[in-house]
Amino acid sequence: MSSSFMAVDRRESRCLFCSACCGVGVRLGPAATSQPDYPPTGDGRFGICGRGHYLVELLSHPQRLTGATIGPTGSQDMAQTNEGIRVVSKRLKELGLGSHIGVLVDGNLPCEVLAGLSKFTKQVLKSDNFSIYIPPVDQAILEGIAASQAASFGLTDFAACDVMLAVGDPFSMIPVIARAVEDARNSQRGNRLIVIDPLLGRTAKYATDHLAVKPGTEALALATLANESGAAGELASALKNRTADSVADSVGIPADALSAAARAIKGSKKLAIIIGLAEGATDRPRDIALIAAAMAEAKNGGVLPAVSYGNAVGAFRVAQSVGSVPPGKLLKDAESGTLKALIVFGKDLLQDFAGNEWARALKNLHFLAAALPIPGKISRIAHVTLPLALWFEDEGTVIDFSGTRSEIVSLMQPPGNSATAIGLAEAIAAEVAPGSALAVEVTAEDLMARKSGDPAKMLGDLDPVNAPPADGKYVLLSCPSTMNSYDGWLTLACTWGALADGRPLARMNPEDLAQGGLANVDTFTVACDRGKLELIAKADDGVPRGAIAVPCHIAARSGLIAQGVDQDSGALLTGPVMVEIAQKAKAE
Amino acid sequence: MSDQQEIKKKVVCDIDHCIECKTCASACFYGHQLTPAVGYGEMPEVASPVICRQCDDAPCVAACPVDAMARDDRGVVYRRRFLCIGCTSCVYACPFGVIDRDLTLHTVGKCDLCRDRLAEGLEPRCVVSCPTNALRFAEYTDVEKDGLMVIGGRVAGQHPIKRR
Q1: 20 to 30 A Cα–Cα from A586, which one of A103, A196, A560, B24?
Q2: Where are the beta strands (DSSP E) in A263-327?
Q3: Lowest-pLDDT range of A123-127, A348-352, B13-17, B19-23
Q4: Are residues A130 and A151 in the same domain?
Q5: What count of CB pairs under 8 Å joins A to B?
Q6: Any idea what the CATH number is for the domain that residue A118 is in?
Q7: What is the pLDDT of residues A505-554, one digit of tens each?
Q8: A205 in contact with B at a CB cutoff of 8 Å?
Q9: pLDDT band at A310 (very low <50, low <70, confident <90, very high)
C-alpha cells in the first residue's frame, strides 16, 4: 500500500513477547491498516523477531474484548464494563473482604501495574493471597540466578567473551541473541560456543561443541563441566563427584568430549552462559541456573537468562519486593475450599499446561472474575469477564534479561470499553472501598536485584528423573518456537502465528519413525496418564532416539508437561514426560 | 528484455547468519496486508528465506497475460494487485519458485522490495526486521567487497560450503 494514504502517526514502545524487550514501532492507520515499523535497538541495529510483528494485529484484533460478559457457563451476556465492575464488587462485598479472596496477575505487565495490584489486594481486598504468575521455567531460572551474585549479561557483553556456553536453545527463544553470540564467536580465532541441548536446535547448529546429552541430563552435564573446569565456585563441594568419567554413560556423551569442553571453559578469559529453556524442556531449570550462576561468578563472567516473559525479571523483583505467594498456593487453596473468590488479570489459566488442575480447582470457587484482552477458556467458566488492555496499551517500567530498565508507553487507547489492569482495579476499589488510591511509584530500590537463598541448599540431586526410553515409550520434549510464545495463548490468535507454526509437528528420529511404522506427515496420538495429544510426524536427524520433539506452545496447551505443584514452595512444575504412541493414521 | 533497467540492489541472504527464525516472512506478511511474498524453503538440512531475485529478463513479466506483472521506474518487478486475475502463469514461469499462489485471495503474492519503503529511502521490511542482520539490501559487488562469497546469485556466506 502506498504511503501516501497511510497514516503517519508513528509510535514506539517495547515488545514483551520475550525478555529481550526489543523496541517496536507502529505506523498507526485506520482500522486494520496499521503497520509494523522498525526503531533501532540500543546497539544501533534494527530487528524484532516474528513474534514482535503480532503487535500490529493485536492492536485491532477482531476477537478483542470490548465489554464485559456476565453470566454462568454457556449463557454469558455482553454488558458494559461498568456493569461488570458492579457485579464483581457486589459479589466481593457479599463474600466479605479477607484472605479468602485471591488475586492472580500475569507477570508480563509493567512493574507499576504489578505493584499497584498488590496494593489493591492487600489494602482494598484485605487479602494476602496476591500472586504474580511467571512461567515456571522462567521463575526457576530467575530463582537460581538470584541465589548468587553473578552478573547479568546483555547483548553487548558478549563482545568481550571468548567462551560462550548455552544450555537449551536460546536462539529460538530469543532470535536477536544470535547475532551477538555469532559475532563474538567469530571475532577471534579459537573462540568457542559450547551448547548443551539434547536436540540439534538453532543454537546447536552454530556450536563449536554440541553436547547432545540425553534428555533430562542437562543439569548433570553442566555440573560436570563446572567441576572439571574448576569453575563450580560456591558449589564446588556439592559437585566434586561429578567427573567426566563418572557421568559419561548417564549423559550419553564420551568423557573425552566433556573434558575437552571443560578445558575450554577452564582456559577462558571471560565466560558467558546463556540459558534458553522452553517450558517443559527439562526437569531441573533451577539447578541449571544455580550451577550456571556459580560458574559465571567464578569465571568473572555473566549469565543471560533467555526467559520467555518480557518483564519476567521485573515481575520477579516486584514479587520479591511486595511479597507474592506462588500460584500453586492459590491452586491448593481453591482445591481445599479455603479460597472462595479469585480475580485473574491477564492470564487464561485453563489454556496452560496446568489447565486440568486449575479446571478442577476453579470449580470450587464461589466467585471467579477474569480480566482478559481476548476471550479464552477461562472466560467460559468465569462469572464475570472484564475487557483488559494489552501491555502496549499500558505504560510503566519493564526490565529485560540483562537487568536494564526501560519504559513502555501506550501505543493507543484500549479498544471499546476495555481498560488497563489498574483502571479495572481502581473501578472495583471505588465500589468496594471508596477513596482508595492504587497508583504506585516503583522506586529503584523496589526493582533492585536481591540475593535470595543458599545455592548449596537449593541444589537438587541432578540425577535424571525419567528412565531412558524403552519398550515403546518416548520422552516428550518441549522445544522453543521462534513464532509463538510458550503457551501460544496470544500468538496463536494471530494469523501468522497459526499459519506458520500452528500445526502440532512432532520431530522424531527417522529410525524411530521407521520402527514405529510411521512416515512423514502421518498423524499419530501420544498418551500418558495426563491425557492425549495428536501430532503430525516429521523426520529429523537432530532428534535423539527415543524422543519426540514438540513446539513448546503445543506441549504447554496439551497439558502433558505439567508435573503438579511443589509441596514445599508451592511453585508449579513442568518437565519432559514419558508417552506412548496410542494411535496411528497414514497420511492421505 | 525490458527496456527499463533492473534494480541494482538485491536482497542478499548471508547464510552463515540466518538462523531460520522466519522473521522476514512475518515482516512481509504484516507489511503487505497479510499477503506474504517472502517464502521459506525447507529442505532436509537447510531452511532459508526465498525472496524474489528481481531478474533482469523477468519471465514472470513476459508470462503475465494481463500485464499485472510490471517493472517500475526504479526497476523493481512488482505485481499490480488489481489487474492480477490469479491465473498463476507467473508462478509456473518463475525459474526460482519464489512466487507462491495465494489461495485465499486467488491472486499471487510477489515481492516488490517494499516499494512504499523504497520511495521513502528505507530498506525492505524483511531486511530491517532481520534479528541477525543476515539479510542485506545491497549490490553484489558490495557484498563481495565485504569478504562474503556470493553463491548462486543471491545467497552469500563466509564459507563456500554451508557450515551448519
Answers
A1: A560
A2: 271-276, 302-305
A3: B13-17
A4: no
A5: 104
A6: 3.40.50.740
A7: 999 999 999 988 899 899 999 999 888 999 999 999 999 999 999 999 99
A8: yes
A9: very high
Name the band, by pLDDT with cuts 50, 70 and 90, for residue A80. Answer: confident
CA distance A372 to A419: 10
Fill in the DSSP letter of residue A265.
Answer: H
For residues A345 and A174, the answer to whether their CB atoms sit within 8 Å is no
Bridge partners, residue B135, by sequence: B13
Q: How far is B127 from chain A (nearest CA, A)?
A: 9
Query: How many other CB atoms are there within 10 angstroms of residue A322's CB atom?
Result: 20
Domain holding A171, by residue range, is 138-305
For residue A384, pLDDT beyond 90: yes
This complex has an ipTM of 0.87
Neighbours of B72 (CB within 10 A): 16
Tell me, yes or no, if the pTM score tops 0.90: yes
A9 and A30 part of one domain: yes
| Residues of chain A contacting B131 with CB distance shorter than 8 Å | 47-49, 175-176, 178-179
DSSP track, A500-531: HH-S-EEEE-HHHHHHTT--TT-EEEEEETTE
The Cα of A45 is separated from the nearest Cα of chain B by a number of Å equal to: 8
Nearest residue of chain A to residue B122 (CA atoms) = A38
Subunit contact B129:A483, Cβ cutoff 8 A: no
